[in-house]
Amino acid sequence: MQARVPYRFTTDDFQRAWKTLQVRPATGAADPERTDERYCTYYTRHRDYGYRPAYVEKLVRECATATGFTRLTGKPARDKVTGALVEDQPIEGIPADSKGEHTGSADSETSA
Asked: Phi-psi bin for 40: left (phi > 0), alpha (psi -120 to 50), beta?
């Protein structure tokens, strides 16, 4: 994950993400196998969880911006090297809406 996310991403962030996205039940749950099977599997024999590649891809997409990272983890995004707080920067040519989300692609055409 750390190599694919533009911000510092820790095991704590991973735990916060599965809780936010509700991909698996909380530790000690009565029904640990009640997972979102698109993203997570419970292994009865080992009594632990495995995460699917689709889950990693979802985390990468969600954490592509500082706003998305914060929404997912509940923590501000931090630079990987310095640890300094990071704010979203506009992507050149793509307007952002009032929430800081990018609304289109730089090469999309406007119809008249």
From this structure: beta
For the entire predicted model, the pTM comes to 0.75
User: Does residue 92 contact residue 40 with C-beta atoms inside 8 Å?
Assistant: no
What does the pLDDT look like over 67-97, one tens digit per residue? 999 999 999 999 999 999 998 765 454 454 4
Residues 6+ apart with CB under 8 A from 11: none
pLDDT in tens, 25-70: 999 999 999 999 999 999 999 999 999 999 999 999 999 999 999 9
Tell me the domain boundaries of the chain: 11-73
Candidates 62, 36, 61, 64; CA nearest to 50 is 36
Q: What is the DSSP letter of 25?
A: P
Distance separating alpha carbons of residues 109 and 99, to the nearest angstrom = 23
CA 3 to chain centroid, in Å, comes to: 13
Residues 6+ apart with CB under 8 A from 46: none
